[in-house]
Structures are given as C-alpha cells and as structure tokens.
Amino acid sequence: MSKINQKSVMSIMLVGIFTLIFMLIIGRFMYIQITGEVQSVDLINFADKFRDSNSELEAERGEIFDKTGMVLAGNKPSYDLYAIVDEEYTGNSSKPLHVEDFQKTAAKLAHIIGLNEARIVEILEGGKFQVEFGRFGSNLTEEKKQEIESLELPGLYFDSGLQRYYPNGSFASHVLGFTEEKVNEETQKEEIVGAYGVEQEYNEQLKGENGYIRFKRDKYGYKLLNAEEQVQQPKDGNDIYLTIDQKIQTFLEDAMTTVDEKYEPEKIIGIVMDPDTGEVLAISNRPSFNPNTRENIQNWYNDAISYPFEPGSTMKIFTLSAAIEEGVYNGSDTYQSGRYRINENYRYISDYNDKGWGVITYDEGVRHSSNVAFAKILWEQLGPEKYLEYLHAFQFDQATGIDLKGEKIGTISYRYPMDQITTAFGQNSTFTPIQIMKAASVLANEGKMVKPFVTSHIKNPNNQEIVFENKTEYVGNPISPDTVEKVKDLLESTVVSEDGTGKKFRLENFSTFGKTGTAQMPNPEGGGYMDGADNLLYSFIGMAPKEDPELMMYVAVQRPKIDYSFYGSDTTSYIYKTVMENSLHYLEVEPDQDAEQTIKSTKLEDLYKQPTKQVVSRLKEQEFKVTVAGNGDQIVDSTPKEGDTVLRNKHIILQTNGEPTMPDVSDWTLREVLSLVELLEIKVDFLGKGFVIKQNIPVGSKLSNDSHLIVELKTKTEQQTDQNEEENSENQDTNQSSDE
C-alpha cells in the first residue's frame, strides 16, 4: 500500500474515533437533559438543595421573674463577628463588600476583640469565602458591635442572637443557676440548656421551640425573586415566676455580705420563708457566684438544701415539742445542771459553760439552752424510741421535696445511747437547713408542716396562659395546737428574758421567738471535734410576729473569725434582725410591741402632681437619697411608687413632667441603674459588677425611648487597686523627673 493510501486510512480512522467520542458526549448530554440524572443523582433536586436556604429562627428562652414581676434572668442581644474575604462577593457594588486590607483590618480590630493582630491576619489569609474569629468574635455585646461598626471596615458582618443574662449578678445565684451551650445529640447543633438551679429544673419549660425560614438563593446567598419563602415562627419558652421577693432577697444579700466582709466565715446560709404557705421568699449562700461570668466558683452546692450538718441547739425545738406533746414535760421540775451521764459506763454530757447554773427548773434550762436538760428529757422522760418516732413524724428521714435540684438529706445517727442523747440537742445526727425550716413550720400552722417551694407559677408568654400554679401543701401533723402555743411561749422566753440565749435576737417593733444553735465542727483529720470559737457553726431559727407569724427565718454562719464564742451570735443576730425588721416593715405588717427606737421606715405620700423642689426638699429632710430625672416643675412618677413604705436612706428616683434627662449615675449599684431605666423606659447594657464608674450618655442629656444607656461597673476593691496603680505610676514619674 502506498504511503498516500496509508495516510488516508489513518485520517479516516481518526475522524471516526473523534466522531464517535463526540457522539458519545452529545448522547450523554441528551441523556442528562432528558432524565435529569447523573450517576443516579437527581440534578433538579441537587440544584434545589444547593439553592435552598434554611435559616433557623431562634426561640427566646423564657424569663425568670421574682414574686413582684422583676426580671431575675432574661435575654439580651449578642453578636458573632465574621468576615467575607472573597473578592467576588463585592461583584458590581460601588463599594467593597469584602475585606480589602488584611493588615489594616487586623490592626484596628485586635484591641476590640482581644485577639492578636498577627493571628487575625492569619485567619483572614486562610479563608476562601468567609472566616470567623472563634471565642474572640463570639457573644459580643451591643457596645462592642457598635465600636466595630464605627471603624467602617469593609467585609465585617454580624450574626445576631440572644445571650442569657442575670441583671442582679450574684443575687440568689444558687437558686437561679445558669445556662451553658451544649451540642444536641439528635440535631448536632449547639443550644442553650439549663445547667444549674431553676434554669436546670425547668429547662424544658424555659427553652421554647425554634422556628425557621426557607427560600431559594443564588451562589452568593442572596434571596431569589419568587423564592417560595416558607416561615415557621418560633415559640418562645415559658416564663417562670418564683416566690422569691426581690426586696426581701436584697435585705438578705446585703446583711450576709456585711457579715461576710467583717467576719470572713467559711459559709453563711440564709433562708426566709412564709411559714403559712411554704413560699420561700429569699435564699442565699456564701460563698456565692455571679452566673453571668461563673468565675472562681468556690461552692457548687446550694447549701440551704444540699449541706447536711450537725445543727446544734436548734434541734431542741423538736425534742421540746415531742416531750410536751407526750405530756412528760414539766417546766417547773428541777434538775442539777452542769454535767450528766446515764451511768458510769458513758461519758458526761456537759452544758456549754461546763459548770452549769446549779439546780434550776427545766423552763430555765430551755432559756439557758442546757444540754443536760435535754439529755435528761430524752433519756428519762421521753425515751429514745418515742423520740425517734417524732423524728420520723417531723420527716427528718426524708427530703422536703422543694422544687430545686440537688436536695440532700442528712443521717439520723441513732444506734447507740450516746447517739440518741446527743441527737436530742443537735449533735451526731445531720440535717439540712431546709429540713429544719419545714419541720419548724408546725409552729405557724397549729401543728401542721408545710412543704417549701420556690416556684409560684409558669406562664406561656405567647398566649398568657398559666400552665402551672403551685399551691400550699401540708405534709404532716406531728404536734397539736396546744403544744404549739406552749413551745412558742418557751421559745419567746429565750429571746425576751435577760438570761435567755436569744436575747440578741430581739426585734425593735415585733414580737419574735426562736432558738439559737452553736454546733461544734467535726475534725476532718482525726475524729472528734475541733477546738476554738472560730471552729463553731452558729445558727438561729425564728419567727415573727409571735401570735401570727408572717415570716420564718433560718441563718447559719460557719467558722467566723472571732475570739470568743459569745461573739458568735453577733453574726447571726445581725442578719436575723436586719432582714426580719426590714422585711416585716416592707410587708406592712402591723408592729405589735413598742419600739425601743423610732421606726426607720416611711410611707411615701404626696409625690405626684406636686412641685419638684418641694418634693425633693421634703424627701431629703426624711433622710432619703434623691435623684431627679427631668427638668419639669412637677413630679409625675417615681421608684419606689407613691404609697410604698420604704426604709430611710432609700434611693428615691423622681420623674418630672418635663423632658427626661440623664442623671449622674456614678457610684450607683446595678440595681439602682435598673430602677432608673425601668422608670424612664430606656435600654440598658452593662459591663462588670459593683458600682458605676462610667456611663456612655452624658449627664443632662435628653432621653428618649431610643436611648441606650451603657454603664461600666467595678467593685470597691477593683477601684482601690486602680487608684493605687495610678498613684504608683505618678510617683514613678515624679521620681524620674527628680533624677533628671
């Protein structure tokens, strides 16, 4: 075959091969166009999925309120920062929509979000379309967002969300608890869940149900025309209303803080309850924590319900009640105080002063809180088996059932005679404060015990329906009304008598009764008990007024720094008297005894429609701190309100009929700031805790509903540290100048 023919054959073969390949390609395209499938993948569905945008609409977590409707746990906006680095995103826009200058952006952004400048550049350079900045760019405040926006850097954007916040800081923190972000095992998405306290107990009620919005988008994420949008609105979580009263809780928090700072105890526990209903009106512990930051939490337990300990002489209430109920107690009978033992095979029981008071009556023994008296009542009159029946009747062998997670119960140690005897006056066996409160409620309810609770009701904010309402529940009837009256009389004598152990707990304007307790702390190293006045737990449980108790309170202070044991009741009596006296006046309970001093509370009258200068002058004469928010000549509103009974030195904020103006809030507490913004109906955000040191709205500026107040707070300790550092810096500068 000639070379020409060979070339022709090769050309034909090549043309044929290319024609075949071309036909296969055309055929494949026609097949795809007709069937819409590639390797069994439906291209139409695939394209739809690519174009589908499915954004979740976050439900707002339910809020937690106090008894009066004050927000104790709420939600505030938070922002997550991200950056677009793809140049194509800008498209035909007249201004850049992506990050143009990585170095400039990093330099300006670094100090705001607290991330190293070089690391920001590294993140920006490593992105293909969009980048985020980890925890440094997450949960940013409104203030941070505005600060970043003011830089006018292209390519920076924010995703908005909600963050849980607690406006009063450590206020009732062991009750409220806190939330945390966890990955849902089913959806593999992060969600906010309750991790402690009420937040955990009612997480399912609070969390709500997220909604969604679906539409078609282009490759840049923009919504297409005729995008077949579907919207499912979110359902916000239910709101929880507690029995906690913010005023009474504040009295308790402030009193405990005073004792904590002065005596530096290991623990403080305080509970205030309505003994008629079982509503817990205040509950607090030291050490406490701030649920907003959860930094340096020293105590993860709500000691009021989770800390069983040997309570000391407060247990004598129940030994006395049992003996009177059984008819074996005769207060006029006498005994030899000081020391007692059941026979020579057992150790002596001693009164707290070792030598006793000689031969005295049992009623005197109650006033003196004599261990010997109660040892003899248990062993010689009542009997250990009968007393054990009463311990069970008072339900010391079971939890109270309070609606908080983490409740524990103590142990009735009752195997040996010495266990039985010492249990009668509060040693050896252990109980929690809430168990003692529940048992003592018999003295306010004619012998019936009431179950304690902290949740008043639950409301659906979407339709205002009450989905749950708590009710008073009586859970036992261990003693009779006649026994109640006799016990109350004896416990009152411990307070009003000069030889009573509770005389430091007398109230100025109200009759009260109760029982002190001084318990030795077990030695954790070698058994037995620790020595010294600063190794004791001091406690008191009392009620007021006597005839019809409105409030019951338990307070315990463990291992305060004191030199002598008789100073121990200074810690508990200060808290008891401060909280009870102020709370009873706040509740407008009629005083039932002559005051040794003038009542330190006043009813706010004749405020509204009265001349501003006249009202301010009168309030200052009454020893109130007064702030006027406005430039009008008449008062139209205030906090507290006209008609409220308030304590002297209370901060009264007045609103006038003129335009509201911004007062100087320097050195205000966060609670005072929140009262101001609630009165003026403006927005607020805050940083830190303690007292206000900075405000973003200048003093005297006019305010509107769009005003957004931002304050920075610092504790007195932090302020002192800053001042010391500033003085040291100035001294160094002065020294350097002198050297020169």
From TrEMBL:
EC category name: hydrolase
Pfam families the UniProt entry points to: PASTA, PBP_dimer, Transpeptidase
Listed transmembrane segments: 12-31
Pathway(s) of this molecule: Cell wall biogenesis; peptidoglycan biosynthesis
UniProt keywords, alphabetically: Membrane, Transmembrane, Transmembrane helix
Region span, Disordered: 714-740
Main location: membrane
UniProt keyword Membrane present: yes
GO biological process terms, semicolon-separated: cell wall organization; peptidoglycan biosynthetic process
InterPro entries from the UniProt entry: Beta-lactam/transpept, Beta-lactam/transpept-like, PASTA_dom, PBP_dimer, PBP_dimer_sf, PCN-bd_Tpept
Catalytic activity reported: Preferential cleavage: (Ac)2-L-Lys-D-Ala-|-D-Ala. Also transpeptidation of peptidyl-alanyl moieties that are N-acyl substituents of D-alanine
Compartments where found: Membrane
Family statement drawn from the similarity comment of this UniProt entry: Belongs to the transpeptidase family.
Protein name: serine-type D-Ala-D-Ala carboxypeptidase
